[in-house]
Specification:
The longest helix is centred in the N-terminal third of the chain and has 16 residues, at 15-30. Strand 4 and strand 5 (124-127) form a beta hairpin. This protein has one domain (2-203): Rossmann fold, CATH 3.40.50.360. 34% of the residues are buried. By secondary structure, the chain is an alpha/beta fold. It has helices at 15-30, 51-56, 60-66, 71-84, 102-111, 155-164, 184-195; strands at residues 2-7, 35-40, 88-94, 118-121, 124-127, 134-139, 171-176. It contains 7 helices and 7 strands.
Length: 210
């Protein structure tokens, strides 16, 4: 069993990093034999999709002609395979201006690929990857859900839609809110309560893909 652990914050001691680390720690108590696949988009951001990648994906015929091994899609293939090799995905991300940070959007643009992770049908996009649990730890300076919500949330509906269209439908959100207003002691309490909600049943049927 592998756990794909993704962080998006550029700050080494950010709330989202601490939250995602706590989630991984909890998962390791439930899956003690799991190995970690690390993808740190905050420290090592991937490039945004360039002209070569866009040209390669311009049509299914074009992609078939260039093949998966071409330089233009090598990064995309690597990122997709990291998901395929993992039974669980953990994402730690801040909420930036109501939505995901650009480094996470760059990752999404690489893993959403027609003919590889999704296919277009008359009814819409259909995912081609096997579903697996995805835990998303969100750190937000404001409050976007629950009592006292005072800002718009474009992050969770967008991320749910993006992951759903490649087949990742079991997404669990763990929001650490009002970080601009609370101290570290209170943040630690909230982290503990969020992680405590993770139960074995939430993992569903995961299997070793390593």
């Amino acid at each position: 069993m592998n756990i794909l652990h993704i962080d998006c914050s550029p700050r080494p001691t950010s709330h989202s990093r601490r939250l995602s680390a706590a989630v991984v720690e909890k998962l390791l108590t439930l899956l003690p034999d799991a190995q970690i696949i690390r993808r740190d988009l905050g420290y090592e951001p991937i490039p945004h999709a360039g002209a070569d990648y866009a040209a390669a994906l311009a049509s299914p015929a074009t992609l078939a002609a260039v093949g998966r091994s071409t330089e233009s899609v090598q990064l995309s293939e690597q990122l997709i395979q990291e998901i395929e090799r993992s039974g669980v995905v953990v994402i730690g991300t801040p909420m930036n201006n109501f939505t995901i940070p650009s480094v996470l959007k760059a990752w999404i643009d690489q893993i959403l690929r027609v003919g590889r992770t999704m296919k277009s049908t008359p009814a819409g996009k259909v995912g081609m990857l096997r579903d697996r649990p995805v835990f998303v730890g969100i750190a937000s300076g404001g409050v976007f859900t629950g009592d006292g919500a005072n800002q718009t949330d474009f992050l969770t509906p967008y991320l749910s839609a993006a992951l759903d269209c490649i087949g990742l439908k079991t997404v669990h959100y763990l929001p650490l809110q009002a970080t601009a207003l609370i101290d570290e002691a209170r943040a630690a309490e909230v982290r503990h309560s969020l992680v405590a909600t993770i139960e074995p049943a939430m993992l569903g049927r995961v299997r070793d893909l390593a």
